[in-house]
Every structure is written in C-alpha cells, then in structure tokens.
Amino acid sequence: MVVKRRWVVERTFGWLNLFRRLSKDYEQKPASSEAFIWLAMTAILLRRLAPV
Q1: pTM here?
Q2: Rounded CA separation 11/23 (Å)
C-alpha cells in the first residue's frame, strides 16, 4: 500500500524546504532547479552521515 510509506516522501520534502532557494522555484531552466535539488540532497545526506 502506497499510503503507508507516504511519510518518507513528506519528510524529504520537509528537508528540502529548509533550503531557502528551493522553497520556491525561482529558476528559469529545469536543469538549474535539478542541480540545486542535487546539491540540497547531497548536503542532507552528508549531514545525516556525519552529524556535527
């Protein structure tokens, strides 16, 4: 059932909203938006792997 795992997606969107630039889509090119999402997810992953 898809609904059982929905919290995983919602939590990820919540983490992405912590990045101010990604809270609204100001980019004009989709490639630029995708690059910032990659950067944000990399930062989230690194923060989870090596908490300070």
Answers
A1: 0.74
A2: 14
Which residue, among 38, 52, 41, has the nearest Cα to 11 in the 3D structure? Answer: 41
Contact 10, 2 (CB under 8 A): no
8 Å CB contact between 16 and 22? yes
Q: In which band, very low, low, confident or very high, does the pLDDT at 49 lie, cut at 50, 70 and 90? A: very high
- At 9, which amino acid appears? V
Burial of 7 (0-12, 13-18, 19+ CB in 10 A): exposed
